[in-house]
Amino acid sequence: MPKYSDGLDRMFHALGDASRRAMVERLARGPASVSELARPFDMALPSVVQHLGVLEAAGIVVSTKVGRVRTYQLATDALTPAAEWISRQRLPAERRLDRLGAFLDTPTDKETT
Amino acid sequence: MPKYSDGLDRMFHALGDASRRAMVERLARGPASVSELARPFDMALPSVVQHLGVLEAAGIVVSTKVGRVRTYQLATDALTPAAEWISRQRLPAERRLDRLGAFLDTPTDKETT
């Protein structure tokens, strides 16, 4: 069993919740405070903080506190372990086509969604 | 909320367990029966079947029954929704470097692990 198993358990578990994924989507656009993160959700602040705690324990987000404001941002290479694990499971031929496709793809359309 | 949310919930949840990921790793090398999948695990057959049920409900594996033997295999593009979601969260610059790296990378070393 590879030693990053627990890390992958935590990471995939953290991503298995639509609210947490929406927070990651928001943070992919830039850092945000807890109240900024809470705004689009019909959710009490403690619940938001709890979700952020799950994401932080999984190594997906990091937080810094300046004065009374805690700001969250995506960790460097936050989702790389999950992406690499998935990539290793794909059939070799499929994987090579993906790489070529991804490389040739112009990201403009996808980045505006 | 995008309509594939529930699907992503199920998919990431299914991947958040080391035993289920090990089954996916096995099936990435080719189809297998339940007993073949059970062999490397110190696990009762019903538990193996239960894990496979979670993977099947998430659309990651499909099964076919011939006579009394049920064979499992990875679904076509099994992990693509998860891979695409992850890819969309990465910072644009990081993502472009990844693509270049993945395209230039020779897969030989990684595929033997």
Automatic annotation (TrEMBL), chains A, B:
Domain of life of the native organism: Bacteria
Entry-linked CDD domains: HTH_ARSR
InterPro entries found in the cross-reference section: ArsR-like_HTH, HTH_ArsR_DNA-bd_dom, WH-like_DNA-bd_sf, WH_DNA-bd_sf
HTH arsR-type domain sequence ranges: 1-94
Alphabetical list of PANTHER family matching this protein: SLL0088 PROTEIN (PTHR38600:SF2), TRANSCRIPTIONAL REGULATORY PROTEIN (PTHR38600)
Protein name: Metalloregulator ArsR/SmtB family transcription factor
Organism: Dactylosporangium salmoneum
